[in-house]
Amino acid sequence: MFLSEAETEARLDDLRRQRAALDRAIAEHELYLDLGRRLARPGAAAAASAPTAPVEPTRPDPAPPSRSEPPRTQPVMQSAAKPTLAPAQPQADPPEPPTGATARQEGRRLIEAAEEILAEAGRPMHAAEIWERLAARGLTLPGHDPVAALNTRLWKRAQGGTVFRRLGDAVYGLAS
């Protein structure tokens, strides 16, 4: 039995929605695993507080590595001499952190934009989806993981009985 073109299109749309939901779930789990691994390593607190650019979750390469590659090994230091460091390149000063009033204004602007995004979408959205649209508008969040930071902000506001309502893990909608 064959499907009509309309049935095939509907089935494809449904499968694409399922794939998008799975991609979001995979990305969220990868982030949690990464966070757990960083916290389990000694000295992770210092490394986690260092400012870094957001990292997109990666998918494993579908092709397995060829067996002909030699195993990778760490180079062994032959002498007890300390390694020499190259002279530091002059870098631009990092931007000043916002003051209390400015930070609050930025936070309000971020939450207002998230509310607009949910209203425009007309449906509940995952924090990662909301963050993509916020970033497209040029908004930023401090920290290593902006999606987690946004999720925390939305979660706190959803508990406070504001316009946001938490519908699931990192999924938010507007209260009716």
UniProtKB/TrEMBL annotation:
Sequence segments annotated as region (Disordered): 41-105
All residue ranges annotated as the HTH HARE-type domain in the record: 108-176
One BP annotation, GO: regulation of DNA-templated transcription
Presence of the UniProt keyword Hydrolase in the record: no
Coiled coil ranges: 5-32
Keywords: Coiled coil, Transcription
Pfam families assigned to the protein according to its UniProt record, in alphabetical order: HARE-HTH
Biased composition regions of type Low complexity, renumbered to the chain: 41-53
Domain of life according to the entry: Bacteria
PROSITE patterns the UniProt entry points to: HTH_HARE
Record's protein name: HTH HARE-type domain-containing protein
